[in-house]
Amino acid sequence: MEETIKAYIAGFLYGDGSIFFQLVRRKDNRLGYEIRASVCFYQHSAHLQILNWLKEKLGVGYIRDRKNGVCDYNIVGYKNVEKVINILEPYVILKREHIEKAKQIINMMKKTKKPTPENFLKIARLVDEFSALNFSKKKTQTSESVREFFESKGFLTPVTTDVTTKSL
Amino acid sequence: MEETIKAYIAGFLYGDGSIFFQLVRRKDNRLGYEIRASVCFYQHSAHLQILNWLKEKLGVGYIRDRKNGVCDYNIVGYKNVEKVINILEPYVILKREHIEKAKQIINMMKKTKKPTPENFLKIARLVDEFSALNFSKKKTQTSESVREFFESKGFLTPVTTDVTTKSL
Q: Beta strand pairing status for A17-25 and A33-44?
């Protein structure tokens, strides 16, 4: 793909796209949670063909017509997201901190395929930081929810903050 | 400016920017109307510095902080708009028809510095066509308003559609 097309998509991502990470409750998962990486581009349904063009260029992901006048092109999973970041990174000018943080999270996910609860929580805290960069407000699952869940399951020892009080 | 920066801005324009033309009622103007060409980029006020970066790159226009959480960067006037189009045109991939139509309007404006009412109306009709490309809904002044105004002032002879009726 030509450099200027990659740069165009990088500019497009700034306006009509988003990189994000989610902490998703998964009962079938060893730790009960998964970390989901996504890149998403949004358009009015009238411009669906624009998302088709993007998908053709980036080669991964799927398009949904949400029937509410909006369609989106989703690239889900850290391997696909990493692929897209690798294509666009050299051309991203604004919001570069998103790219850096996303790479940090993805690298930690790659290094720890079977994370311990402690490691998972560490990544979950980076996910919180990433959401703060996005000014995301509709987050229901935070690293705090993960920590509480891990403690309730005995994966982590609860942090007792009232030790001092007790000893008084 | 580097090619990839121009391409990035072209992609950015697709998502967070707009090219538009307006028919503006001007009492001090010979024909009572002016055709205003604009390129505008919009951001949340938190990202004002992004508009500063754009303005530095494009070298024309002004930034307004609208105090309602939105700021915009406006490039007004056909000479400035032409300058920006010339920078971005080679890299625009989507909405190319906007660029073609904008160039057509600007070329007509340049050719006819002191347009006759007939010529002005011709350009005003292209402005209507441009607005249709933008799905613009809040237009109050159309080429039809211009035609009615010109007729009311005697700049144009009213088109009499009832000749046939009269001769019956």
A: antiparallel
Structure pTM?
0.87
Coil/strand/helix, residue B27: coil
Distances in Å between the Cα of A149 and the Cα atoms of A21, A126, A159, B168 are 19, 18, 13, 88
Residue B38 to residue B79: CA distance in whole angstroms: 10
* B15 neighbourhood in chain A, CB within 8 Å: 11-12, 14-17
* B12: chain A residues, CB-CB within 8 Å: 11-12, 14-15, 94
Q: Residue B135 in 3-state DSSP?
A: coil
Strands lying side by side in the sheet with A70-76: A17-25, A33-44, A70-76, A62-65
CATH top-level class for A3-167?
Answer: alpha beta
**C-alpha to C-alpha distances, A2 to A5, A17, A87, A106, nearest whole angstrom:** 5, 20, 11, 26
Query: Token pair of B83, please?
Result: 């300058």
Q: What is the pLDDT of residues B30-85, one digit of tens each?
A: 999 999 999 999 998 888 989 999 999 999 999 999 888 999 999 999 999 999 99
- Min distance B129 CA to chain A CA atoms (Å): 18
Tokens of A113: 């395929």
**In chain A, what are the domain boundaries?**
3-167
